[in-house]
Amino acid sequence: HVYKGEWRATRSLLGSQVSYISPFLSDREEWSPKRLRANEGRAFVGSYVLGKGFVISHEEAQRLLGDDPRNTEVVFPYINGEDLTSDPDQRPSRWVINFWDWSEEEARKYSLPYRIVEERVKPDRQRLKKNGEYKLRKPLPQRWWQYADKRPALYHAIGRGGAFKKHPKSWSFDREIDRVMCVTLSSKYALPQLVDNSSVFDQKVVVINLDSFRYLALLSSSIHNSWVFHNGSTLGVSRNYTPSNCFETFPFPIFGDFCGELDELGRVLEERRAGIMRAKSLGLTDLYNIFHSRDASNSAVNCLRELHVEIDRCVARCYGFDDLDLRHGFYSVPYLPEREKVRFTICESARIEVLRRLSELNRQQYEEEAALGLHVGGSRGSPSRSPRTRRTNSADTIQPRLDFESGPAASKYGETPSAAIFNFLKANDGWYAKADILTATGITDRQWVMAISELVTAGQVKRQGERRGARYRAIVDDKGV
Model's pTM, two decimal places? Predict the structure, then answer.
């Protein structure tokens, strides 16, 4: 139901009466997730070819490769979203000609591929309107032998930037990653897969330059899936895995002692589902249709479900979410159409709490990055390009863990962070900045985020201003309570 105006009736959440319901379906005010600089430069949408003439069949590709060995430099497998979700081996169904960012003179050296593109692409690219102007914007008609969007950042990030003539100033000729993580841009389940890094990737594929099994496990977990389904846009029953909303905002955990366990779980996940798909000739979507069906109960599918439960529990431990009761089972989830609601996943209360905690972790890391000047001048939470510092290579070495179970605050004002903050503000009338409160109470920056959020939501502390300009004071009644 939708109501316009001030709601004066009761509010109910998960069977309990509450005073407030957030967009995360919790009873607390929530942070709107922002893109994190730590995740920048890792996830990319594939190449926008714009020209059917670039795409060739397997047979034609083999003829070109057999005609001249140099054609391996411009003829590649071409993988799209349907290949990822429908083929048991995620094999590219077609091939494509790619002249990168080269000049026409350079492209012409590959005579047969150039001739194909000239005959099949150039006429469409240079089609005219009635007034004699090109139908397509510049430089598409003038550079008809190149893709509409070549995605140089993508291929440089995965170690294949050497094919381009122009390179970013900061780029060095690093090793090529053997495999990359791929997610179909719009799919029913938004699950990642590791694929060979030898193809041209279609615009319907999101490529992530992470190649370890621990990331396969993490991004396949219900924890990440909950984040994706909450922050991504919808298209029918499908979810759009847009890098800016789903990946760049996602706060990675510190893997710590769980690296080995998560690597092993990711390895087993890849082997187990690949074995089922090949044996049954199933694509990834068909496999997970069975996975989420109450009626499917064979040993292979049950083993896959048990593996996903293990992955979710391990990922939860990485985040320090050990206290959460995930309670896996078949649930009718609220974020899908009626006929597609049932999923084998974590329970709804756990999903809401996971979203709340991830949101707080996003807030903490964003504020830490902002304090370093990494978001100065950005808009709507987007990372700005300047100033910036050198980024660490491994995501798991730069992501802090939010301390949800904060220990005693070593302070004369109270035994917990929340009590210390409130008692300090109650004892000192007026507005105080975060830095002043931290100095006075001795609590840590990690303890601050959760504690102040709870106090503001509970109506014990009032906040004035935003971000670094925020000031706080206690709210007390006439009796000083």
Answer: 0.76
